[in-house]
Amino acid sequence: MLGQGYIAQSLGFADSAAVCYFRALRYGADDPEWDGRVRVYLSIGHCDIAHYVMMTEAEILPEDVLETHGRDGSRLLMSGKAAYTPGMEITCGSMGYGLRIAVGAAFGPKRKRSRRFVYNLLSDGELGEGSTREAAISGLRHKLDNLIAVVDFNNRQADGPSQGMLWVEPLDEK
């Protein structure tokens, strides 16, 4: 890919994104807005390249669009934007809001007794954000068993190792 981006972060998360797209998702490649699709909310803005590649492999995006990543006028911006990119559920970039959007999105299918799941792909750095913690508590409180959070534990944040910030281990107990 030409243009700019966070290649290492995307490569580190590509396997998780691939599992979500090709083992868990139901989607309509010809209709990215299909109501019956399983939603994936990518809140790791630095992993957008992996997300774009998965959408290309899923035939939601044409393959030649990957060459435009990060360029002026491209639909594939450095941090994904839902208004620009078909198949991108939310605009990503700022940490800490993906899980709360996913919690809200999980309410509808849960109330309708739908079997549709909602996935949120987030990073360990986001777990230190207050809004992420509040969203997790809300999801538990409302028994949103149709919401699956996939956390990339890479122990990296802009300001240093995640463990030196607001570390959340052991996550399974919380």
The CATH architecture comes to: 3-Layer(aba) Sandwich
Strand order of the largest sheet: 1-2-3
Mean pLDDT: 81
Uncertain runs: none
Structural class of the helices, strands and pairings?
alpha/beta
Q: Tell me the CATH superfamily.
A: Thiamin diphosphate (ThDP)-binding fold, Pyr/PP domains
| Main sheet summary | 3 strands, parallel
Strand content: 5-15%
What form results from the Cα inertia axes?
A: globular
CATH topology: Rossmann fold
Radius of gyration, taken over Cα atoms and rounded to an integer in Å = 16 Å
Report the top-level CATH class.
Alpha Beta
Helical proportion, percent range: 25-40%
Write the element-wise H/E pattern from the N-terminal end onward: HEHHEHE
What descriptors fit this protein?
174 residues; alpha/beta; Rossmann fold; 3-stranded parallel β-sheet; 4 helices; globular
Can you put this structure into words, describing what you see?
The protein is α/β, with parallel strands linked by helices and 174 residues long. The protein has one domain (7-173): Rossmann fold, CATH 3.40.50. Helix content is 31%, strand content 9%. It has four helices and three strands. It has helices at 7-24, 48-57, 98-111, 130-141, and strands at 39-42, 118-123, 147-152. The chain has a three-stranded parallel β-sheet with strand order 1-2-3, with helices on both faces. It is globular. The mean pLDDT is 81.
